């Protein structure tokens, strides 16, 4: 874990020690958002998808990626957004820039680093857990889908259309079919995540259409519930 930084709630003046979550970069290096020491945290009064993510630079390889915006819940009920240092582009300090074209040997793909989940306490945590897992599988530029599904929250990335049901309602046959039709129209892979699982007919239809189904446990680790999900974990994006 990263070292904790002192944070004072501007509403009740309560003092906290905050340590940001650590996530694995694609190169395997642990990365955490660089919190600005001494900066005033901001109470969250309005939540948008763009505000939920922050650009972080890996100091090992120089890669820029999107990670969850650091936030802290105060005992007074205020949700605080913790400021982070702006990310800079370019190679990491002490590292020469990588050439644009590198001839790679024909070898087996490097093993994927371990997935580091985020504990699910709210519906927004469930959506973030699914987005982090999809990034771990190899999908990039994940964002909230412009076209909304029948329920839940849609996520999209190049070649991907995912649906997350972050409520205690099991995903239905109609939910699964809507995800499949939307993905079909965009030549994308459909994937479903649900906190409460799936109805029997939804599970049967997903198996017939080869749609990966995952159940989100409260630790934030998606669990595969059918063969297409196992295959997606094995092959990645």
Compile the SSE list and pairings.
Layout: E1 5-8, E2 15-18, E3 23-24, E4 30-31, E5 42-43, E6 53-57, E7 64-68, E8 71-73, E9 79-81, H1 123-137, E10 143-144, E11 153-157, E12 160-165, H2 173-185, E13 189-194, H3 200-209, E14 213-216, E15 222-224, H4 227-235
Parallel strand pairs: 12-13, 13-14
Antiparallel strand pairs: 1-2, 3-4, 5-9, 6-7, 8-9, 10-11, 11-12, 14-15
Helix pairs in contact: 2-3
Protein name: Restriction endonuclease
Organism: Streptomyces indicus
Summarize the structure.
The chain contains 4 helices and 15 strands.
Mind explaining what this structure looks like?
Helices cover 20% and strands 24% of the residues. With 237 residues, it is α+β, with helices and mostly antiparallel strands. β8 (71-73) and β9 (79-81) form a beta hairpin. The longest helix has 15 residues, at 123-137. The model is unreliable at 95-108 (pLDDT under 50).
Q: Return the domain count.
A: 2
- How widely separated are the two ends? 28 Å
Please state roughly what percent of the residues sit in beta strands, choosing from under 5%, 5-15%, 15-25%, 25-35%, 35-45% or over 45%.
Answer: 15-25%
The SS-based structural class is alpha+beta
Shape type: globular
How many alpha or pi helices? 4
As residue ranges, the low-confidence spans are 95-108
Average pLDDT, rounded to a whole number, is: 83
Q: Rg to the nearest angstrom?
A: 19 Å
Main sheet properties? 6 strands, mixed
Helix fraction by DSSP (H/I, runs of at least 4): 10-25%
CATH class of the largest domain: Alpha Beta
Q: Architecture of the largest domain in CATH?
A: 3-Layer(aba) Sandwich
Number of strands: 15
Q: How is the largest sheet built, in terms of strand order? A: 10-11-12-13-14-15
């Amino acid at each position: 874990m990263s070292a904790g930084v002192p944070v004072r709630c501007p509403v009740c003046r309560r003092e906290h020690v905050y340590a940001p979550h650590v996530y694995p970069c694609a190169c395997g290096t642990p990365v955490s958002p660089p919190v600005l020491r001494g900066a005033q945290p901001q109470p969250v009064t309005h939540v948008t998808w763009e505000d939920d993510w922050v650009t972080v630079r890996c100091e090992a390889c120089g890669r820029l990626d999107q990670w969850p915006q650091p936030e802290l819940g105060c005992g007074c009920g205020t949700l605080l957004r913790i400021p982070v240092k702006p990310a800079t582009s370019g190679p990491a300090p002490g590292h020469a820039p990588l050439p644009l074209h590198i001839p790679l040997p024909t070898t087996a793909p490097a093993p994927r680093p371990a997935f580091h989940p985020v504990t699910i306490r709210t519906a927004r945590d469930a959506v973030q857990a699914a987005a982090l897992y999809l990034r771990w599988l190899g999908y990039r530029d994940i964002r909230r889908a412009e076209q909304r599904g029948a329920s839940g929250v849609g996520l999209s990335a190049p070649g991907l259309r995912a649906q997350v049901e972050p409520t205690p309602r099991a995903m239905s046959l109609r939910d699964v079919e809507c995800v499949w039709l939307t993905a079909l129209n965009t030549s994308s892979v459909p994937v479903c995540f649900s906190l409460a699982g799936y109805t029997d007919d939804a599970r049967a239809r997903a198996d017939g259409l080869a749609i990966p189904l995952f159940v989100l446990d409260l630790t934030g680790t998606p669990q595969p519930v059918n063969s297409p999900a196992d295959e997606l974990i094995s092959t990645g994006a």
